[in-house]
Each structure stands twice: as structure tokens, then as C-alpha cells.
Amino acid sequence: MPTVIDTVSRKPPEGPQSAAGRVREKAKGTGGLYQPRVPIYPKLVHGHWRRIKWALLIATLAVYYATPWLRWERPGALPDQAVLVDFFGRRFYFFGIQLWPQEVHFITGLLVIGALALFLVTALFGRLWCGYACPQTVWTDLYIYVERMFEGDRNARMRLAAAPWSLDKLWRKGGKHLVWLGVAFGTGGAWIFYFRDAPTLFVEFWTGQAPIQSYLSCAILTATTYVFAGHMREQVCIYMCPWPRIQGAMLDDHSLQVTYRYDRGEARGPHKKGQTWDGRGDCIDCHACVVACPMGIDIRDGAQLECINCGLCIDACDEIMDRVGRPRALIAYDTDAAVAARARKAAPVYRLLRSRTIYYGVALLLVSGLVGWGLLMRPVMDLHALRDRNPTFVRLHDGAVRNGYTLKIANRTFYPQRVEVGFRGLAGARLRAPGEPAGATLTATIPANEVRAVRVFVTADPAEGAPESLPAVFAVRGAGRVFETRTTFITGTGAPR
Amino acid sequence: MLERERDDHTGVETTGHEWDGIKELDTPLPRWWLWVWYGSIAWAVVYWILMPAWPGISGYTKGLLGQSDRAAVVRELGDLATQRQAGEAKLRTASLQQIEADPELQAYAMQVGQSVFGDNCATCHGAGGAGAKGYPNLRDDVWLWGGTLDEIRHTIQVGVRSGHAQARGETVMPAFGRDQMLTDAQVTDLTEYVVALSGRKADAAAVGRVRQTFADQCAACHGPSGTGDVARGIPNLTDAEWLYGPDRGAIRDQIFNGRNGVMPTWEARFSPETVKALAVYIHANAGGDAELSTPVAAAPQGSAVGAAR
What we know:
heterodimer, A: four-stranded antiparallel β-sheet, about 40% helix, B: 10 helices
């Protein structure tokens, strides 16, 4: 890739232009090991992407706050909350799906799907997640909105920060922090409802009856929301989040990203009304894109680690372009390859189908299919046989041989299941539960949504020369199906008699 | 001093080191990072004050919160005892049969029983209760002293030849050979007779020779057909169970030397509730059935003896 913007030979006209630039400036003189955070005062923009971001902000927050209150009827004493992570009962409920701790691989599958989807989206369209859907971005956006309500837009905020303390500054700053804390508490407060019946917990919470975990989780979420969205903001993305680094590996020259089209913009410079646009670029160096940036960078420096691809600079620039009468999209979602092509006066080529997008897509389809298939096909009952190991067998008074087994039968349905246990692979085997008469099969009832250990004694008269251990199968008929598990029967023919 | 070099692109100083042409930027750490570090130091000081921290010559600083793992263990043991009270109370009042019929109480008794069995009984009977030569198998359906819940409890309480006033095992097996009550040849013939009793192939001539001796010496306790007597702990010679081994050598050895097993009394060591739990545990592990506590003579045995008759 050619050097897109020559920052070495071109001296910046006047001081640092972005917050990041100001940081560098500040570090120059001091040579200190630690740098203070340089506050960023993003200016409100209006436009296409800003509207999408507002809509997504409302949608994501609505989903977050409303989900725990959705009801979903389940039989008996089972919880009626649609989405519930029940740690005490060790169950995860998601509408019609119910997962047990043993099925945590579905959660793993879901995370893998999420990761692959993120890979694919990033390879195609850049850091859409970071710019629009990440909780850090959404809550920071919300916090900046609150900040603007109290302190005004960028310039007013900067003035207020520089102003000496006054009653006006006190109430503006104090009010902002109070509302921030309120939002933070609401965030932490909503979180805990995912882990306990929401209406019950609501009452418990305010009457001091809720479990200590609820109060602790709420306090931790309140603190992290307030600190991350109110104070840390872009620093979370730049210093704490590993994702920007990983996403760098997903991107290539054909990924759509928020891009400054330098082929059109350079050479930049101030432009007076009436002056000619010949022999110069469309960028009038107004810094509208810089002041709008919540990450404090200058998009005209090219793709950067800090850039979350939120598109606010696009809206900011479009507004200016409209005003100066130049076409929009000097900053736009575009690919490095297309911009480079235009710079060479060649036709830009967009390639959505690339080896990496194909790999990610195929992997995503495979894993989604696998998880979906597993979820549809997962047995409603589960069977495990644990054979007694000490003693491995017992010889009875009449010379017959008895093996003891503990069957673990899981009933994942919401109704009690009557099961019939059979044993295959051993002629004349007799089954009995402790204290019950023997028979060819035995029955047991497994309560709804539980695992039961069923003790089974299997007695048989193995032939004289039978091998010491015989393969056998436990077959359990229940919930309209037959579930089988393999086991062995120790014949004891090796022992003296 | 290193020559400080400034990177043109970023305006940040480099560390001054170079690895194969690659230089590293000396980007300053964010200030909040430093605060986290200061915070950690402050937290450490708070921790010293609140928690046990510094060792001294004769002790250590206890900390304001009075945290002590030792005290926590004592407290938890106390909690455990409180927790168990309900279960213990139920064990005390319920009959053995009631315990077995109540799944919850039975599960509790099984837990207590398993732990007590492992600590006390496993030494002789084995961790799984399968026994060993001379130590009865507690998992099968053959019970020298009876296999009902009450019989098992009684055996645990008084023991066998334990010195307890009501100890079981008044009847003993004489050492027919060692005490020269029978000749070596008679003992050998009796061995054949006992083998025949359990339905196995035996020397018919020997069986015929010793029939009267069995009737005179053995039948008094073991019964004319060798089925034993559970009330007195007399083994059944016709079943497949052999306390001292099933082969001829082991049987002959037992007739010759007449060993008599001993089991201690546990009445003084276990509370009645513990004995109940243990009885329930042993009974359940053996199959939990009442009807086979006195095994009936199985079909095949008499045949060889009958043929020789």
C-alpha cells in the first residue's frame, strides 16, 4: 500500500489538531512516564449515521432493560421468566429452550458463533460492533447525551471546564454526575433481574430481602458503568479492550471502513467563498470531523487503532460539504483499495467475496448449523450407568451373580416421566430395585426437570465358561423414546467358587 | 545516558534500543494506570490493618476484623451439628423400616452410614463391604446372623463373641482335627461330604463312609441336611457362600482348626442413631430385601448327597 498521507514532510499548520495529537504534544515537553487523560469534547452532529446510532441506542437499551420482564409460561413451580440464568437452580432458561449445566457447550457454541459473526462483519464492513453495538459505545453515547443536557455542546463544555468554580458550574457538574449515577444504578439494577425472577427480586431488592449477590452485582455494575462510560470512555477502547487489536487482523484493503478519501480531499486548506476549487482538494481543513470524534482522533490520518468506525465524522463532514457546495462523502464508508485506485485515476473495485470472508462465512454457517442441529436434536432425557466397582460383583446363595448399578436418569422435560428400565446382552438377567421384587424390567418415575439416581441390581447365572466381563446395554424407555447406554456385566467366572 | 530519539510519525520518544532495525516507542502510560497502582498500595495498607498480616516473635497482628480460619472451622463445625440436628432427631424417633420408607431420611441415613462404615467397618469388611476370607461379605444375600434391618442392627450393637453380655456366637465350631476329636482320614472324608452338600462333584465312597460321622458330629448344629441355623449363626453348608473359602483345602482347614469369627460390639462407640443409619446403609447395599435374610436351601445341592445315600 502506498503511503497515503505524508505527515513527515508536511508540517502541520498549527499545533495539534486532535486530542491524540495534543497528548503527543504534551508528552514532548515533559518526557514523563505517565500521561494525563486529555479530555475529549465531541461535538453533536446531525445526519444519517447519527440517526442510526440514536435508533440503535434506544433499541439496544430497550432490549437490555425489558428482557428480564418478559414472561414465559412454564408448568408447575418452574420459573415463568422468559430469559433467566438461574444459578441457584442451575438452569438457564431462554424462552422455550432450557439448558442444564452439562449443556454449557451450547453457550460455548453461541460464543463461537458470535466471534465468527464478528470476524465476518469486521472483514466486510469494519468495526461495526465497536461503532454501534458495543455496550461501551452505547453507554458512552448516552452519558455524553446527559453531559450535553447539563453542560451544552462542545464549546460550552470546554468553556465550563476552563471556568472557575461557581454555583452555575457546580449545579451543572453535580447534576450531570447525579444523573450519570442514576443511569449507572439503573444499568446495574437491570442486570440482576436476569438472574432471579424480576418482579419478585424488585420487591426483595427494595425491602432488603434480596440475596447479597444481587446487591453486590448491582453495586459493581453501577461502579463500572459510571467509571467506564462517564470517566474512562475512549480509554477503555484504547487501553483495556483487546478487541481493537484483534480486529486489526480481520481487516484488509477491501474492508469497508470510515475512510477519508484523500484522493479527493488533498491538498487540503482553507477555502474562501468564491475562490476556485481547481488545483486543490475538497478538504477545507475545518476540523469538523476532528471535533465530532468521540475517540479524539483525526480520521484524515488514515485507519487507526483508536477509530471505532462510528461514522460521526461522516455526518460532520457531509454537513460542511453541503455548506461549501461540494459533493458529500469526502469521508465515507469506503475501502483503502478503492481510495488508492481513485488516487491512481483507476476505477475502484469492491470485493466482498475474498478468501477471508469466504472462510469466515463457511465457518459461521458450519458452527451455526452444528449448534442449531444439536439444540434441535438434544435428547429430552439422558442416561448414564455407573457400575459398582467395589465389589464388582456379588455371588448370591444360589450361586447366581449380581452386579449393582446406579443409573443417572436426567429428565429435561417439564413433566414427570415414568421410565421402564431394561437390560440387554445377558440371557435371563433379572432386574430389581432395592427392596423390590425382581423382574425382566423395572420402572421408576423421574420428577420434572431433575436427575434421579436409580439403583438397579442385575442378577444372572452366567454359563461356566463365560468371559469375566460381558458387554451389555441399559435401555430406558421414557418420554416416548428409548435411551440406551452401554455398560458391562462382571460374571465372576474368574473367581473361585 | 542514552541518546533520546524522537519518532517522526508519532512524535513520541523511542526507548533507544534497536532490534534488527525495529525500534520501540516509549509511549507514556496513561495516568489512571498510575492511580490503579497507588490504589493497590493503599489497599495493601488497609488489608494489613483489617486482616491478620504481620508475623511477630510470639504471635502475629490479628487485624481489626478478627478474621481467623481456625475460628471459622470451629464455627462451621458448630453449624454442621446444628444442621444435622433435624436429621438426627428424625433418626432417633423413626423405626428402621420408617427410615427406609422415607426417601429423604433414607438418603440422610445412607450418607451417615457410608461415612461411619468407611471409618470403622471397612478395616475388616472392606471399603465396599465385600468382605474377605473370614470376614463376611455384606453385599450378598447370605447372612450368618440374619439380614433383616433389626437383625443387622442387633449384630452391630452386640457384636460376635465380643465380650458383650448379649454378644452373639455362643455356639462355636470345634477344632475337630487339632483337638483330635476326629482322625485325619475322617476330616478328609467330611470335606468331601461338605463339598457334596453344596451340589458339587465329590468322592461318593468318602461321602458314604462319613455319613454317620456327619450325623453324629455336625448335624447337631448344621442340621441333618447341612442348612445351618441363622438364629445361632450356624453357616448353611449347602449354599454357594464360603466364609473361609470354597475349595477343599479351605473347607478341610476349617473342619480341622474350627475358626470362629469375632466382631466387636459397637454399642459403646456409636450412638443409637448412628447404629440405625449404619444398619440402613448395610441393608440397602445388600439389596434392601427382607425375604432373603434367611436363605432357603437352593435346589441342586442335595443331589450328590442324595445319590450317595
